[in-house]
Design brief:
The chain is α/β, with parallel strands linked by helices. The protein folds into two domains: 42-65 and 344-456, Aspartate Aminotransferase, domain 1, CATH 3.90.1150; 71-342, Aspartate Aminotransferase, domain 2. It is built from 17 helices and 15 strands. The chain has helices at 11-18, 26-31, 58-61, 70-82, 95-107, 121-138, 159-164, 168-172, 188-191, 197-215, 241-252, 273-277, 304-312, 327-342, 345-364, 399-410, 432-453; strands at residues 37-41, 44-47, 52-55, 112-118, 146-150, 180-183, 220-225, 255-259, 283-286, 298-303, 370-376, 379-384, 413-414, 416-418, 421-424. It has a seven-stranded mixed β-sheet, sandwiched between helices. Strands 1-2-3-13 form a four-stranded mixed β-sheet. A hairpin with a 2-residue loop joins strand 11 (370-376) and strand 12. It binds pyridoxal-5'-phosphate (PLP).
Length: 459
């Protein structure tokens, strides 16, 4: 069936009949037609209608090495032939999982030397949150249970991940476990008012300290945050923010969990977002680009100070997955890290990000609807605004972004809209010529959107 030799299979009809999609309003999906992606190469996707679309999102922020990499296919094939599966329960291990754990210890910041594997970012987050609570239980402080996260934070879609994140729609639909709270995100454009970004960074960090005071440090287990908030609209904290968070967590004896699921493996122009922002995490969660999305895999990296307690004092930690440390996924991750390191993709993300932002500024700075162009490395956002002088949001948040997103797709570019921010996160392999295509299509889409909503924009 998958060969579909005559192109005669009605994938769209069958999808509508049998498939439930993630984060989708199915009624409105079924009013139109689902897009069928059939293959991909480099930074381009191909759909069943013959369109070639530049993937400005690297899938879901994950395809760092680009599509169609034979090295990753070969790594998977070889491991499939040798040992397609074995588990890591019951005193066993496999070479790919050991090699990957060691490799991650080498490339993560000093002190993070122990890896626990799972299959998705959400599972890594769940694991880290349970570990944080078990850590405090083990140290005789079972009352330290509360997890502090941030509004617009995204930590996955399991019940704990949704509760830790700051997406109110997810909280409303069963993602609101007890002992989770959120504070203001370091979103200068939205909340900074008259403060400078540097002042606002301190101000936003102090919200965490105030919350700890209010709850009592004896009740707080951990603070969890993405180095920069991806799914929340690529919210990039001012450089004053994370050093202050480090201080607050240390002084109050709160574990610091850096959710590196998007930032990890070069996205920011450093290997990890923690390297970029100077974060001192006790635990790091990672997934997505760890395999460039070719297979599902995630990990929690633990600092020695946490691992020592869990290893030497906790006894058994009653947690793990059938596919924890899946050998094929680990083999692909190793080959993917080879690509990232051999091709200098981390440095490349830094250099290409600078070039991309120069091009975006040149094309869009003058535009009355473009309030801010932000980014680090190869991740960022174009904030569409109703009034660029006062940084005013559009009346109904998200409608203009959605219009723009649809123009982007029609123009052969995948860019996601988060509220009215157009976000980008292309493969780290993108070339300068491809960046020109991305910028031209984005600018054209913004122009078409503007033509449609002009009367809502202050001049
Ligand atoms: C995507 C994401 C997750 C969840 O990962 P899944 O693999 O979708 O479960 C968690 N945290 C962050 C920061 C993410 O971007």
């Amino acid at each position: 069936m998958l060969d579909d030799i005559n192109g005669s299979i009605d994938w769209q009809g069958l999808d509508a009949a049998h498939h439930l999609h993630p984060f989708t309003d199915h009624k409105s999906l079924h009013e139109g037609k689902v897009r069928v992606i059939t293959d991909a190469e480099g930074v381009y996707l191909h759909d069943a209608e013959g369109n070639k679309i530049l993937d400005g999102m690297a899938g879901l922020w994950c395809v760092a090495a680009g599509y169609s990499r034979p090295e990753l296919v070969q790594a998977a094939t070889r491991q499939m032939q040798k040992l397609p599966y074995y588990n890591t329960f019951f005193k066993t291990t496999t070479p790919p999982v050991v090699a990957l754990a060691q490799r991650l210890a080498q490339i993560t910041p000093a002190g993070l030397n122990h890896a626990f594997f799972a299959c998705s970012g959400s599972e890594a987050v769940d694991t880290a949150l349970r570990m944080a609570r078990v850590y405090w239980q083990t140290l005789g402080k079972p009352s330290k249970k509360i997890i502090i996260g941030r509004e617009y934070g995204y930590h996955g879609s399991t019940t704990l991940g949704a509760s830790a994140g700051g997406m109110v729609d997810m909280h409303r639909q069963g993602g609101d476990m007890p002992n989770f709270v959120q504070v203001m995100p370091p979103y200068w454009y939205g909340y900074g008012g008259q403060m400078s970004p540097a002042e606002f960074g301190i101000y936003a960090a102090r919200q965490v300290e105030d919350k700890i005071r209010e709850l009592g440090a004896d009740h707080v287990a951990a603070f969890i945050g993405e180095p920069l908030q991806g799914a929340g609209g690529v919210i990039i904290p001012p450089e004053t923010y994370w050093p202050e968070i480090n201080r607050i967590c240390q002084e109050n004896n709160i574990l610091l969990i850096a959710d590196e699921v998007i930032c990890g493996f070069g996205r920011t122009g450093q290997m990890f977002g923690s390297d970029y922002f100077g974060i001192k995490p006790d635990m790091m969660t990672m997934a997505k680009a760890i395999t460039s999305g070719y297979l599902p895999l995630s990990a929690v990296m633990l600092h020695d100070r946490v691992a020592d307690v869990l290893i030497n004092e906790t006894g058994e930690f009653y947690h793990g997955f059938t596919y924890s440390g899946h050998p094929v996924a680990c083999a692909v991750a190793l080959a993917n890290l080879d690509i990232i390191q051999n091709e200098g993709l981390v440095q490349r993300a830094d250099a290409m990000g600078v070039i991309l932002r120069e091009k975006l500024h040149a094309a869009l700075d003058h535009h009355p609807m473009v309030g801010e162009i932000r980014g680090v490395g190869l991740i960022g956002a174009i904030e569409l605004t109703a009034d660029k002088r006062t940084r005013k949001f559009f009346e109904k948040r998200g409608r203009v972004g959605m219009i723009c997103r649809d123009y982007c797709v029609a123009n052969g570019l995948v860019m996601r809209a988060v509220r009215d921010s157009m976000v980008y996160s292309p493969p780290l392999t993108i070339t300068e010529a491809e960046l020109d295509v991305l910028v031209a299509r984005a600018a054209q889409s913004i122009e078409q959107t503007y033509a449609q909503v002009k009367n809502e924009v202050a001049l």
